[in-house]
Amino acid sequence: MVKEIERAGLPVVHVCTVTPISMTVGANRIVPAIAIPHPLGNPALSKEEELHIRRCICETALKALQTEVTEQTIFDVKY
Amino acid sequence: MKLELGNIIINDIQFTNEGSKVENGVLYVNQEEIKELVLEDSNIDTCEVFIARPGESVRITPVKDVIEPRVKVEGPGGMFPGWIAKVDTVGSGKTNVLKGAAVVTTGKIVGFQEGIIDMSGPGADYTPFSKTYNLVVKMEPVEGLKQHEHEYALRIAGFKVACFLGALGKNLTPDEVETFEFDNLVESARKYPELPRVAYVQMLQSQGLLHDTYVYGVDAKRTLTTIINPLETMDGAIVSGNCVSSCDKNPTYVHQNNRVIRELFKAHGKTLNFMGMIITNENVYLADKERSSNWSAKLAEYLGCDGVIISQEGFGNPDTDLIMNTKKIEAKGIKTVIITDEYAGRDGKSQSLADADASANAVVTGGNANQVIVLPPMETVYGHLHFVDTIAGGSANNIDAHGNITVEIQAITGATNETGFHNLSAR
Predict the structure, then answer these.
(1) Whole-prediction pTM
(2) Which of B66, B74, B165, B416 gives B253 a disulfide partner, CB atoms 3.0 to 4.6 angstroms apart?
(3) Is residue A79 part of a domain?
(4) Chain A: nearest CA to B324, how far in angstroms?
(5) Distance, in angstroms, between B316 CA and closest chain A CA?
(6) What's the first-to-final CA gap in chain A, in angstroms?
(7) Domain residue limits at A32
(8) What is the predicted ipTM?
């Protein structure tokens, strides 16, 4: 899906847990998620803490979307 | 370390109203004794016991685990350390095996993806457990039991029944005895200096509920990659807590009879020097995947390997663990052969694995799990047939008016096993 949307001319950020697979399939902008069963949250945290990590992932993704890249790039999330 | 497996060949299972026993190759089972044992657990509400023999028109589904009945006759430890026996190190002394018999646990579904065993018809060719005499234990939980408690109750009940049956063979003289010896690292290296040094890396499924494996009672997802003596795994140290997409999951029976280990023992001292076994996990966090595969490579190097065989358990994101293990071990200058299976689509034309690398250039496949098969109706179903449209490999309305079930072979227990323990072959 990432590649097809990019082929149509739109930049894509792939938020995913297993970033090596994302690299293998050829995504250009990759943001690491939390874990496979809960990519954008963490049931071990409080609601406030979860909101914080979600915001961090989301903001990193938005930043990645606006960043020019020349090669496949992983944008680490700062929590 | 030396382990003797004494096989008591079982040619039939029959019910009896007297005490359970093994006599002249027949396992006689008193159903009431089994029920009493299972219902000791207050989380299990009902228990029924059935016999499924090879060639019968019987379907067992949804299957949770398959376990070989065994008993420790001599030496330290006991069956299923950490669960039934205490945690003494197993893998030495004498163990008796009711060879040809198996305990199969079934009942209301825990999750959504447990498997099918057909005892005859085309489905029987795809599961190794159509060839065993199966004591089917069907258990239903008390109302309101949480999923993980349900899974735990059924898992332990299966072990208890297997130990109860195994104990019936404790004082019998085995029909055949297999002896396995495994030296320490220094001795192994000294003995066959001219042969290539080979280790086995076994990847254990460890992704959470219905996706877990246990080593001496320890949840594999909470462990670092480690070294285990292959004789320990042959003696019940590793047990299954997973059956989702059951084609490529290792029931406890498969751990007890790991084919890779057996083949390595066969070749040991002849064509290779079997240096040891590394167990690693398949967790859902990327950092865990990185750490565990780093340790696989580090331990393979520590064992002084020239080559390793890596077996995967499952598919999807564990493909990444597999490729990480391969890449990192190859980067140490150690050759790898990987054993996996494929999800290449129903037409077989899609990419087989979710991840790939050029260093993974020696691959053994257990088959394409998306391959479609039609299972004709069976006269008897032990378990619950109405789940077959929701298990993995099933689909909505996949039972036709004649009772034929159309499923992918991923729904069949053991169909594409990644330790070579199955019936599919390209030969």
Answers:
(1) 0.94
(2) B66
(3) no
(4) 9
(5) 10
(6) 28
(7) 2-74
(8) 0.85
